[in-house]
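Lab notebook, design round three. We kept the backbone fixed and only want residue identities now. Task for the bench partner: fill in a sequence for the structure below.
Input structure tokens:
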């Protein structure tokens, strides 16, 4: 039904960097199901961070070996898994591109939690040291391997900043009049709200450079907050289940609220809940990526940028939706983050819609799917991991402590 564009479609060989993660795993299965040949690359750092934080996915996720075995059993399709650190194992990455000759690399392999990136100097430094070299290695390895590989990168809506732009946020570029009166169309100014979001701004500049210098073909997807758990592929076998993060660092807001609602724990609305953010269901993440894979920019074209979002909502409104379905009350907690208390957000997603995407929205009954998953696994929840444990700076930590 929705969004599988046939434009330029052919079966491709796709390397999925970060294919063991929350977005990467269901995307790998979706692409495999559509007939693409998939190689997952992941260093399992996300699983290790769970160990470090003392928490775990609410859903019991199988090992990578078991996951790909189960997929072959249920679909008859093979997925190769390669354990490699994109930020460190440069020679192996070049070799992989030379031997496998992929058409496309989808790049999910970054530390993606804003709170984890603000937890401590360790979190800040790790996030920069992992994400920035990873993206540079990817671009550099494509040049070294002398392959014309299309890069599809998962960026974030957060590169635009929240509440700063006024009017609809365009897809990546804005018209400006430069000093002296020259008209130009440039990358939208970057205005990150965390060290993590800053790495995505740096990625965008690097992509601009490698496109200009080496004519790399790059699509940067500015994605909103992903929600949901399973997709039509991950639901096919218990061993294929997707991860579900609910803790204060990695859990994203809507999945956290749905989990809290099912647990009967008051919904943790930060500040006034006036923050407006963009949302997309995980099933549409996978569909959007296939559309991007099937519609690469031509060699020499500037970086293609899509806003990968379905809709925008205010945090207190989504908490209200969950509260009215579950009967669980909202609890306004002091905001641990340095962010605007209230903002408007209007985002263009015309490019995906023009290519056939009809995105799922929060009104379409998918809350039930997440609620069922949470009910099934709530015995695995550690309630100590629910409250936020990371503060953006000393002033926020002191204020939160005073008000708690
Ligand atoms: P995730 O942490 O679940 O998955 C990332 C995967 O990358 C993990 O499996 C991790 O082990 C792997 N990885 C990290 N660094 C690596 C390295 N150096 N080498 C090899 N593998 C590495 O995150 P996710 O939620 O699936 O997000 C994937 C991408 O999508 C991220 O880049 C994120 O910024 C972007 N994104 C996510 C969301 C969201 O709401 N989850 C929203 C917008 C954008
Ligand atoms: N929030 C609450 N209560 C909670 C958790 C969060 O009120 O219990 C608020 C936060 O203060 C924030 C908003 O909800 O204003 C969103 O927080 P989030 O943790 O769901 O999302 P964020 O930190 O922005 O990061 C997530 C992903 C990241 C991705 C980003 C897309 O972890 O990888 O890049 O969403 S976006 O927000 O569009 O930039």
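Proposed sequence:
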């Amino acid at each position: 039904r929705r969004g599988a564009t046939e434009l330029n479609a052919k079966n491709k060989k796709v390397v999925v960097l970060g294919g063991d993660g929350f977005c990467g795993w269901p995307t790998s299965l979706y692409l495999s199901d559509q007939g693409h040949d998939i190689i997952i690359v992941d260093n399992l750092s996300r699983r290790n961070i769970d160990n470090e934080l003392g928490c775990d996915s609410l859903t019991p996720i199988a090992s990578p070996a078991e996951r790909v075995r189960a997929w072959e059993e249920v679909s008859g399709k093979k997925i190769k898994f390669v354990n490699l650190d994109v930020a460190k194992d440069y020679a192996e990455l070049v070799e992989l591109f030379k031997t496998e000759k992929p058409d496309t690399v989808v790049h999910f392999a970054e530390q993606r939690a804003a709170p984890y990136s603000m937890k401590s100097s360790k979190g800040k430094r790790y996030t920069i040291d992992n994400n920035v070299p990873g993206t540079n290695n990817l671009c550099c390895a494509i040049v070294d391997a002398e392959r014309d590989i299309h890069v599809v990168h998962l960026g974030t809506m957060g590169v635009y900043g929240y509440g700063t732009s006024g009017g609809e946020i365009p897809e990546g570029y804005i018209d400006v009049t430069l000093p002296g009166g020259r008209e130009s169309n440039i990358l939208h100014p970057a205005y990150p709200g965390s060290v993590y979001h800053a790495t995505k701004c740096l990625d965008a500049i690097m992509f601009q450079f490698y496109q200009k210098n080496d004519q790399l073909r790059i699509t940067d997807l500015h994605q909103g907050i992903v929600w949901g758990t399973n997709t039509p592929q991950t639901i096919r076998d218990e061993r294929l289940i997707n991860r579900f993060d609910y803790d204060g660092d990695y859990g994203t807001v809507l999945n956290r609220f749905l989990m809290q609602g099912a647990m009967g724990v008051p919904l943790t609305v930060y500040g006034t809940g006036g923050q407006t953010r963009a949302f997309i269901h995980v099933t549409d993440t996978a569909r959007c990526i296939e559309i991007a894979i099937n519609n690469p920019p031509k060699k020499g074209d500037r970086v293609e940028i899509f806003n990968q979002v379905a809709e925008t909502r205010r945090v207190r409104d989504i908490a209200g939706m969950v509260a009215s379905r579950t009967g669980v009350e909202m609890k306004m907690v002091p905001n641990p983050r340095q962010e605007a208390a209230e903002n408007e957000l209007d985002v263009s997603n015309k490019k995906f819609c023009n290519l056939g995407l009809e995105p799922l929205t929060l009104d379409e009954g998918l809350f039930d799917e997440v609620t069922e998953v949470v009910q099934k696994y709530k015995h695995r929840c550690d309630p100590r991991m629910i409250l936020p444990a990371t503060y953006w700076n000393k002033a926020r930590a002191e204020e939160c402590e005073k008000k708690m």
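Keep this in mind before ordering anything: The chain has 13 helices and 14 strands.
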